[in-house]
Amino acid sequence: MTRDHHIGMIVPSSNLTMETELPRMLRAREEAEPDDRFVFHTARARMRHVTPEQLRAMNAQSGRAAAELADARPDVVATACLVAIMAQGPGYHCTAEEDITRVLREQGSTAPVVSSAGALVSGLAALGARKIAIITPYLKPLTKAVADYLEDAGFEVADALSLEVPDNLAVARLDPADLREHHRRLDLSDVDALVLSACVQMPSLPAIQPVEDELGLPVLSAATATAYRVLTELGLEPRVPGAGRLLAGRVPVS
Predict the structure, then answer these.
(1) Which residue, 39, 111, 131, 251, could crosslink 156 as a Cys pair with Cβ 3.0–4.6 Å?
(2) Any domain includes 254
């Protein structure tokens, strides 16, 4: 019997990628597991440039966006802007998820809440990674904020690459094929995992599996980690073909 799973997403107003990559992954899962179908509902929060001021302003809109999504009665809600949360300081994903959960409950929704920031932390933990490298599209101060956040969560960030693209629409236009070369600029000699895109706006899905196959170590992104958490919160096996080890169905679900 076919089951429909309704997924709510809170995304920046300038986001073009999360609404592409997450559905693409779950469509691939539908082809492998046709009994499960996925329906998407999106609320937007205004943000054009990846600056601390606009990130804080976007976070302030999450309650309004959550209330709008509650009307669709989603089965899970994902708030998808990693740096907006990580730039607020260590552990802030817990606060953000709790705030959105409270609004959903006030509106009669029982949906669990996932953040891309929290999903990346839990995805790395699920892989057993301790020493990692990351690629971001951000300016160096924001990349440092992301690295500090991950360090506080218990990971050693051995190396980080900043592509330094401040305009969020320009981030969406970056060619994911370039990531197959960018990772060569990192020292990966002793890492447990590579975060190929620590940003849900920087396209990376077509490069995840090829880079993982080349390196022989787990490769993930904020988007693949979010897919992992969405599927586990729905009680489904986190398996998506061709999306890296985290979604290969071989990682134990805690």
Answers:
(1) 131
(2) no
Cβ neighbours for 147, distance < 8 A, ≥ 6 positions apart = 134, 157, 160
Q: For residue 30, give its domain range.
A: 3-116+223-245
Active site residues: 81, 199
CA distances (Å), origin 92, targets 26, 43, 85, 99: 27, 21, 6, 11
> Is this structure's pTM higher than 0.85?
yes
Which residues carry a binding-site annotation for substrate?
15, 81-83, 138, 168, 200-201
Which residues are annotated binding-site positions?
A: 15, 81-83, 138, 168, 200-201
Q: Compute mean pLDDT per 10 residues along the chain, 254 residues long, and list them.
A: 92 88 96 94 82 78 92 95 88 94 96 97 97 96 95 97 92 95 95 96 96 97 97 96 93 68
| Residue 23 Cα distances to 28, 42, 226, 230, angstroms | 8, 12, 11, 12
